[in-house]
Amino acid sequence: MRPPVPVPALSRRAKLAIGVVAVLLVLSTVIGTLTNVYVDYLWFDETGFTEVFWTEVQTRALLFALAGVATGGLVVLAVHLAYRFRPAFRPMSLEQQNLERYRQSLEPRRKVVLTALGVVLGLLAGAAAQGSWQTWLAWRNATPFNATDPQFGRDISFFVFDLPFYRLALGFGFTIVLLALIGSVLTHYVFGGLRLQTPGQKLTGAARVQLSVLLGLFVALKAVAYWLDRYSLVYSDRGGLYTGASYTDVNALLPAKNILVVVAAICAIAFFVNIAVRNTVLPAAALGLLLVASLLIGFAYPAIVQQFVVRPSADQREAEFTGRAITSTLDAYQLNDIEYVNYAQDQTEGADRDAAIAALRDDTETIPNARLLDPNVLSATFTARQQIRNVYGFPEKLDIDRYTVDGVTQDYVVAVRELNSSELSGNQSSWINRHTVYTHGNGFVAAPANEVVAGSEGGEPNFTTGDLPNRGDIQVDRSQIYYGELLNNDGVDVYSVVGGPSPREFDQPEGGSGEGQINSTYDGAGGVSVGSFFRRLTYAIYYRERNFLLSSAVNDQSKVLYVRNPRDRVEKAAPFLTVDGDPYPAVVDGRIVWILDGYTTSDAYPYSEQMSLRDSAADALTGTGTTALPDQQFNYIRNSVKATVDAYDGTVSLYAWDDTDPVLATYMKAFPGLVKPRSDVTAELESHVRYPEDLFKLQRDILTRYHVSDPIAFYNQNDRWQVSADPTQQGTTTDEDQPPYYILSQRPGDEEASFQLTSALNAFERDNLSAFVSASSDPETYGDIQVLRLPGNTPYRGPNQVQNAFVTNNQVRPDLTLFSSENSRAVFGNLLTLPIGDAGLLYVEPLYVQGTGENSFPLLQKVLVNYADRIGYADTLAEALDQVFGQGVGEVAADGGTPPATPTTPTPAPTDGATPAPSAGPVDEAARDAAVTRLNDAITALGEATRAGDFARIGQAQADLQAAVQAYQAANGQASAAPSSTPAPSPTG
Fold this sequence. Notes:
The protein contains 28 helices and 36 strands. By secondary structure, the chain is an alpha+beta fold.
């Protein structure tokens, strides 16, 4: 036999170097980890949520210890027992001689190897287990749903809270037994208890006993797994169109699982009996029986039933179980109390104009509040008119909220002038400036959503609140923005060091010239004090920034502000919540606060359809102003929490909005005092609460299928709907869903307008309209969902068909060619769908023109209206309505008055839907060419003025552009009314 090759020995210096490197690596890891934990603790301490921190840390530590000790300890025990009962004498076979060298190597290091094995396995198991701390807390604090599943009669809480924990525990049980079995087999093999190639007895008595026990435990756990599998049938997807136990699952697979439980239990007993019987035939036969049974009755038999019993008459066989899925899915997505209205059943595509005019007479709030300012388009306009300095900015997508001013409630496009850290340039981006000077934004900006400023600079929002210092009809007492959506750099939270004996933070420009600046010092409650050397050292390590120790800007009065994005703050304070992707600012009691919606979710609600949060809540705006939800599966959701984050001091307040939610109640037991009762929501805060967009998108997706209550009709899918593709994305390669829109309008049957979130739904794989969904945001009717069902046998136009009719209209098409030139482009705003009483749906869409220069911004130029087969296209909404309904209707309706009883009949629309101008004359080609030249010159001048930031030249260029458009229309034989020269109380162009 070949002698073993000696291992080269390391020199003393090499050993020392390796030891030093190892110590440094360990110290670096430990210091980094402890620093991260301590910085986290300081944040929780500053915000008043230390209970959340300690509950999470203690739970993670408990699970880490339990899993680590159980896994490492039991596996090491099994290996130790295998070594302890090794045979004293081994046959001198070639196999044993080859193994002798390994035994000689392991013997002197046995304790070290066992210790290392236990530590490594314990660390790995603990790390895996501590990530399931929410599963543990949910199980420990489970709250009954007081509703049972239709198959097993168990309370829903068993499936939502208990079953996931049992599955987790069972998984660790399998892992421990399997690792112990592997370790025991290897130990017995190395030390002679298991002899694979040695003649004679293959197993010693001790090895047989230990392996029989471990195999018996493994099969016993398999029996438990089969038992739990019975309950997991409520998540089966065998039915295809729905989630839940199908006919085959209940009538074939469920009995099979019961039988397999018994077979597995017998097999486990056989292994335990083998301890005394010492006969491998019995456990081998039992194991074979288990395998055969699992194949025949667990796989083959259900497949036969599915193929030959269910499939030939699936709609009938599955009817009972489809009904279960419909009921459970609607419950899980809170859609079981919807008002369905058979809308415009007596109307056709050529709807009754007189009925629409009568509806306009009764509905005095929908048209006056028709939104012409698109918050998804106007970010550049807000930036151009309200940015003030380059350090400020606005998000890509603005927000819609409603305010009551002088007794009148209307919706506004709102935004806050945030610090845009990504736009700091030159010396502005030095550490001192980035983190101690440019620390915050300033100001709240609002413009009525149905108004524009007419006159020389027509088409701009009417900023009724804005500027610096902040002034306007919405009173703001504290305008500084220290917490917001733009306080990041490439997705990384930007911290600020604030406070000190003298003002050093840039607050706003000084005076009208904008040459000077006013500095301030933060005196809010937010931020972590870094007055001590230890704190400064901590943050120097955490941010890897020596200026915490060296800079005079960091002093005894300084604080560090971090985790400044409102979504991040709420998710950190309440880690069991999923936060809506679109926080929005509101002025409440004179302070600017961010309002957010928190969801509690579960993926374990029985019979409810599984969906992806990220995919189901995505639309054309996701990623361009709204944050995508996490990519996780779920089948239960509640808007259980409303949260606010103070924009100045970062205070996070959580309110139990849906206090009937068992998931929220469970976590409120785990984190007592974290969530305030709904009664603490003030009336002013409640007046700004909106129905959340992401939840609405999930619900409308479910409604496209589950509005059908009859199981057979559901299975046949003969009345399915779908969300329309965003019509404003026509001509692009994208095909995202149309986003829902907030509107202030009067629902059919209501006496006054309410703030709603709305969406149009098409027929499946068609562009015809099938339904209109709205969810109320008013405090009295919050969450009430209404679905207007349109007649299925009439071709009502959907959003894309309306958009196509607009862009092909013989009035609109020439203007689009003009607007889309080398120096400008046409931008379509949100295509709003507005129910007009019981008479049908009115579409309204603003049309903007934007230059192609770097600092250009869109201006409202035209308004498009569609009702049935009539199209209106004019400078103002009133004029466009006149084209559709007759002279005089538009102006009165847009002012909220009573339309005339006998309006002038509009010019009949051609069959292709192209509405001619109200008056037409001969085309003057020479004048038209001259107007085109003026138009190009105006667009060029507008681009140059915008890049130069010269507001006077911008205004003149806009006036020239408006005049050129009117001259072109006149030369082309089209009548065009000039806009008013004063701000209009009703929508104007």
